Amino acid sequence: MKSILEELYNGNIYPAELIFPKAPEYRPLNKRISDTLEMWQKKLPEDDYNQLDNLLDLHSQSSSMEASESFLYGFRLGALIMIEVLTEKEKLVRGED
Fold first, then answer.
1. Domain boundaries of the chain, sorted by first residue
2. What is the distance, to the nearest Å, from the Cα of residue 37 to the centroid of all Cα atoms in its chain?
3. Do 40 and 49 meet the contact criterion of CB atoms below 8 Å apart?
4. Which residue, among 69, 62, 68, has the nearest Cα to 17 in the 3D structure?
5. Distance, C-alpha 75 to centroid of its chain
6. From CA 55, how far away is CA 29, in angstroms rounded?
7. What are the tens digits of pLDDT across the range 29-60?
8. Which burial class, exposed, middle or buried, applies to 49 when counting CB atoms under 10 A from its CB (0-12, 13-18, 19+)?
9. Could you give the C-alpha distances from 61 to 12, 29, 87, in angstroms and in order?
10. DSSP for the chain, written as a single string
11. What b/e sequence results for 2-13 when a residue is b if at least 16 CB atoms lie within 10 Å of its CB, and e otherwise?
């Protein structure tokens, strides 16, 4: 089995494609969004619907950027926590302050 670093280097790990909410409300919420978009597509003139669709694409891009930054922040914070834990381990074993 290859290490995580090897898999990451070789491009075999895609966090953005593997992360999705596990909340039970997630799929029904997306279904409601899809149904609502379909309803607006039927109600609006094509040009108006295309403008709405473009707005939603912009929102999706913005959300993706926020998710990326959240992932990076969480990863960095976790790494800093590990560094702190590893650099303080002697104090834990020896009981020093």
1. 22-94
2. 23
3. yes
4. 68
5. 12
6. 19
7. 999 999 999 999 999 999 999 999 999 999 99
8. middle
9. 24, 19, 39
10. ---HHHHHHTT---HHHH-----TTHHHHHHHHHHHHHHHHHHS-HHHHHHHHHHHHHHHHHHHHHHHHHHHHHHHHHHHHHHHHHHTHHHHHHT--
11. eeeeeeeeeeee
Tokens of 40: 């607006």
Structure tokens at 89: 């381990």
The residue type of 35 is D
State mean pLDDT over 5-22: 86
What are 93's two structure tokens?
Answer: 């074993």
Q: How far apart are CA 30 and CA 24, in angstroms?
A: 11
In the numeric block, the tokens 């895609």 are attached to: 14
